[in-house]
Amino acid sequence: MKKRAKTETNRVRGKTLALAALLVVCAAWIVFDDLFAPLERAAVSVEIPDFCGVREDALESADWMTVEKDYRYDAGVEAGVVLSQSPPAGSRRKLSAQNPQCRITLTVSLGEEHAEIPTVVGKDFREAESILRGLGFAVEIQKSEGAYPAGTVFAVSPREGSEVPVGTRVQLSVSAGLPLKSVTVPDLRGLSRSDALVQVWLAELAVADVIEEPSFETEGTVIRQSHQPGTLVPAGTKLTLYVSRRMEE
């Protein structure tokens, strides 16, 4: 009886030791796997494919790729097409258990940049030009006479609110004001000072100054004038009159 009990105890003890040994082996394998990486999990080298020129909706990436995208305008490339990439195509990267992914950054075209023509009619042309140039437009100014105050934008082409490519030439029609009226300079020589002033006023001109000069002509009469009689000048032009003064003996 005692002998059987002893045998059973030895059997249980043997199983316990075997189980403990198995646990030790498993723990050792886990430690070895983490520290030294078995051959089947060794680092591998991969080649970066060429994505340039590929449409965004046709991109295919492998499981080991992490693809990121940024965008910029490019008038020469259709929207949605890859412009550039990093890392460059053909380069190689190593993947391992610790670094199983490779990050690839793609720059995708937004096509030609467009902007809206803002409201500039009614503004001073200098302010309008500054606004348009700030949006990337080229500006052409065409002045013409009109009822608007001089320097005021009264038309724009392309029209306000339209979407056009950045860099488009925008034409501003700017008022040069009302046309100046031309009048003829009258002949004031020989007229008295008072009569000459009346004629100047009737001719829509003005007097800048009246200068007396010694002369043998009748005292107080106009002997010469700053502008030649019969010439055309803008209305409001100022004349200088030279009036006779008695010669001193």
Termini Cα gap: 177 Å
β-strand amount: 25-35%
**What spatial form do the alpha-carbon principal axes imply?**
rod-shaped
Mean model confidence by pLDDT: 86
By secondary-structure content and strand pairing, the structural class works out as alpha/beta
- CATH T-level topology of the largest domain: Trypsin Inhibitor V, Chain A
- What is the β-strand count? 15
Domains (count)? 4
- CATH class label of the largest domain: Alpha Beta
Largest sheet, described in full?
Answer: 3 strands, mixed
CATH architecture of the largest domain: 2-Layer Sandwich
**Rg of Cα set:** 48 Å
Write the H/E string, N to C. Answer: HEEEEEEHEEEEEHEEEE
Main sheet: strand order: 2-5-3
Q: Uncertain runs with pLDDT below 50, 5 residues or more?
A: 36-40
Please supply descriptive tags for the structure shown above.
single chain; 249 residues; alpha/beta; Trypsin Inhibitor V, Chain A; 4 domains; 3-stranded mixed sheet; 33% strand; rod-shaped
Structure description:
The protein is an alpha/beta fold. It has 4 domains: 1-35; 42-109, Trypsin Inhibitor V, Chain A; 115-175, Trypsin Inhibitor V, Chain A (2-Layer Sandwich); 182-246, Trypsin Inhibitor V, Chain A. It is built from 3 helices and 15 strands. It has helices at 2-36, 125-134, 193-202, and strands spanning 44-47, 65-72, 82-86, 92-95, 102-109, 114-116, 138-144, 153-157, 163-165, 169-175, 182-184, 206-215, 222-225, 232-234, 238-246. The strands form 6 sheets. A 3-stranded mixed beta sheet has the order 2-5-3, with no helix packed on it. The chain has a 3-stranded mixed beta sheet with strand order 7-10-8, with helices on one face. The radius of gyration is 48 Å and the shape is rod-shaped. The N and C termini lie far apart (177 Å).
